Amino acid sequence: MCVREIARAVCEGDDDIIVVRCQEALQRGVEPSYIMKEGLTAGMMEAGKLFDDGEYFLPEMLISSMTLQKGLDFLMKDMQEEKSFWKGRIVIGTVEGDMHDIGKNLVVAMLRVAGFEVIDLGIDVSAKKFMEAIRTYKPDIVALSALLSTTMMNMQTIIQQISENGLRNEVKIMIGGAVVNQRFAEQIGADGYSENASQAVILAEKLMG
């Protein structure tokens, strides 16, 4: 019952109760990975369905994702100890010159509840910072986000830098954002494009093979 209440809290954006419910579940002996899958993930998926059906809009999705993140932050220490849970490691960031992060944050939240370890570099991330992150964290996937037409070409710059540094075969690269599409992904040498957060999860799982 407590796990179902966690799912409801995420869907309804009740961030006042999410940590209490997660704590109660842990005290009852529920595994963190189960809380994540059947509580946090289920609640976010339910919110996503309401969004697809036109009953939820971006503000409601953002509130749900913030509640989700609060629960994730609480569980993260326990999750780090369950190494077998993670499907893969992803480094993500909004490219240099772009300060938008709403879409990226939704993708980060969805990837984490889907079982990916995500290193979020934030906004305005240069090619150099991406290179440093690849060398430090050794991710399976690098995810690039851009919302402005003036910054989308920075994605190509980053991919070129990854290739020139001999790391292209070490990582898969996915891109997303309002100004890009699958054709652009192919043009700049990315491995794939996702239209939204849900599609990003599907793409990441596909790239992991």
Structural account:
56% of the residues lie in helices and 12% in strands. The mean pLDDT is 91. A five-stranded parallel sheet has the order 2-1-3-4-5, with helices on both faces. Helix 8 (182-188) links the parallel strand 4 and strand 5 (192-194). Helix 1 runs antiparallel to helix 2 and helix 1 (2-12) packs parallel to helix 3. It contains nine helices and five strands, in the order H-H-H-H-E-H-E-H-E-H-E-H-E-H. The termini are far apart. With 209 residues, the protein is of the alpha/beta class.
What's the arrangement of strands in the largest beta sheet? 2-1-3-4-5
Beta-strand content bin? 5-15%
Q: Nearest-angstrom radius of gyration?
A: 17 Å
* Number of H- or I-type helical stretches: 9
Helix residue percentage: 55-70%
Distance between the termini: 34 Å
Mean pLDDT across residues: 91
- Could you give a short account of the major beta sheet? 5 strands, parallel
Helix-strand pattern: HHHHEHEHEHEHEH
**Strands, total number:** 5
Q: What structural category characterises the helix and strand content?
A: alpha/beta
Low-confidence stretches: none
Shape: globular
